[in-house]
Amino acid sequence: MVRAAAVTALFDRPGAREALRRAIRDRSPRVRRAALNAATRAGDREALELVVARLESNDEWPQVTLEALRFVSELCLDEAGEAVLAVVRRGIRPDAWAPDVDVAGVAADLAVRLGGETAEEVTAMGNRANTPESIHAAIERRRAEPRPCGEASSP
After folding, report:
1. What is the residue extent of each domain of the chain?
2. Which of 61, 65, 83, 89 shows the greatest Cβ crowding within 10 Å of its Cβ?
3. Count of CB atoms within 10 A of residue 44's CB?
4. Which is nearest to 52 in space by CA: 71, 31, 30, 26?
5. DSSP string of 38-76?
6. Tens of pLDDT along 46-74?
7. How far is CA 55 from the centre of its chain?
């Protein structure tokens, strides 16, 4: 908790970006989540590679993954599209962990908002027979009410 609080306090300090980026790889999910939140608030686009690693990790905590998705959404980083799709893929596995399914719904919504090939691919995933209804519904909801990434009410 102390390290997470320190990361939160550092987000806007000069010279703190490297410490925040190191914290995105911390062993504690609480610290990683705080670091991702700080990177989002700081608009640290250079942390994208670290954020992509969090999204692509099969062992990441759902709260950390959600914060990584928020980073991508807030900074409107369509170059993270493949990593966002990796989150969706985890949620549509037949043996998916329930929290991964929930997070995949948020990722699917973001994938549609990112547009382009990412939106096309997530739409195709949503149409598969094995896709959980919650993910399919998230895709259809966003397609019915499009809103570009970067606008309010993001993950």
Report:
1. 1-75, 79-149
2. 65
3. 22
4. 71
5. HHHHHT-GGGHHHHHHHHH-TT--HHHHHHHHHHHHHHT
6. 999 999 999 999 999 999 999 999 999 99
7. 6
Q: Which residue has the tokens 């896709």?
A: 131
Query: How many other C-beta atoms are found inside a 10 Å radius of the C-beta of residue 4?
Result: 20
Q: What angle do CA 143, 148, 152 make, to 5 degrees?
A: 110
Neighbour count for residue 53 (Cβ, 10 Å) = 14
Choose among 32, 155, 29: nearest CA to 102.
155
Q: Regarding predicted confidence, which is higher, 17 or 98?
A: 98
- Closest by CA position to 69, among listed 86, 59, 58: 86
Q: Measured between alpha carbons, how far is 92 from 13 in angstroms, rounded to an integer? A: 40
Say which amino acid occupies 128: R
pTM: 0.91
Rounded to the nearest integer, the mean pLDDT of the chain is 91
Amino acid of residue 55: L
pLDDT of residue 155: 52
Residues 31-52: tens digit of each pLDDT: 999 999 999 998 999 999 999 9
